[in-house]
Design goal:
Blueprint: E1 2-7, E2 12-18, E3 21-28, H1 36-42, E4 47-52, H2 58-65, E5 71-73, E6 83-84, H3 94-106, E7 112-117, E8 120-126, E9 131-139, H4 141-151, H5 171-197, E10 202-207, E11 221-223, H6 227-239
Parallel strand pairs: 1-4, 4-5, 6-9, 7-10, 10-11
Antiparallel strand pairs: 1-2, 2-3, 7-8, 8-9
Length: 241
């Protein structure tokens, strides 16, 4: 069994894999990995991998050092089963890279757009030959709510959950409609534009935020909340055969 750890800007996700199947996934602190010991005690784990978009704390490194199996840390120098054409690989978020690897593993020989909606929303493109060309980064939905509150003196912090209208009739509904619909239109726009260039395009959606939007290729959209974890598991197996 494999242990996969994805440390994000907000939370850490830990998953145990039996070959390609997720046996259990838990969320924990991205500064302490407080759930690591308990998870490891439940399964006969043989190897692990950790990827982080933040600097690993001393507490986390001590936790990882206690593991009774080897844990590799994913960096831009780690061998991967795709061709990375990103011009500054040392600045590339490992979660972005893992999502692309996961999508390519699940749908090889296809042109893929990978959308990961979390603290930030990222758009990645990998072609049918397994060449990752790069992607774009945009503020995530809750980041947009917080930005309006922080940068505009009289705009309140609004929660996504609540009444949604086509056009707001109050400041609260105006902010909610503007942020949510703006995100939906942005995602739909990326898909539509990429579809013009690649009619056979497949789209992977992952991350913590769900969206509904109109597109001509709904039958070619795959929602997979474990996509980054699956990519990390694929990279681990690729390096430890």
């Amino acid at each position: 069994m494999n242990l996969v750890i994805d440390i994000g800007n907000t939370v850490a996700k830990l998953a145990v894999f039996d070959h390609d199947t997720v046996v259990e996934m838990v969320r924990g602190s991205n500064h302490s990995l407080d759930c690591l010991a308990l998870l490891c005690s439940k399964y006969p784990i043989e190897k692990g991998i950790v990827a982080s978009v933040i600097t690993l704390s001393r507490t986390i490194r001590r936790q990882l050092a206690k593991a009774e199996f080897p844990i590799m840390e994913l960096t831009h120098e780690t061998p991967i089963p795709i061709t990375n054409l990103y011009r500054t690989p040392e600045t590339l978020g490992m979660d972005r890279l893992a999502a692309v690897v996961g999508a390519h593993y699940l749908q090889p020989d296809r042109n893929l757009l990978v959308i990961d909606a979390g603290t930030a929303v990222t758009y990645e493109f990998i072609d049918a030959e397994g060449r990752y060309w790069g992607g774009n980064i945009s503020p995530g939905i809750y980041t947009r709510f917080k930005a309006l509150n922080a940068c505009c003196d009289k705009l309140p912090l609004i929660d996504r959950i609540g009444e949604q209208t086509d056009f707001g009739y109050s400041t609260e509904t105006a902010i909610r409609a503007g942020v949510v619909k703006g995100m939906e239109f942005e995602i739909a726009g990326y898909i539509t534009e990429m579809q013009k260039k690649y009619p056979d395009l497949l789209v992977f959606l992952t991350g913590g935020d769900n969206f509904s939007f109109d597109t001509n290729i709904k039958n070619s959209i795959f929602a997979d909340r474990f996509l980054v974890l699956k990519g990390l598991n694929r990279i681990l197996n690729y390096n430890v055969k």
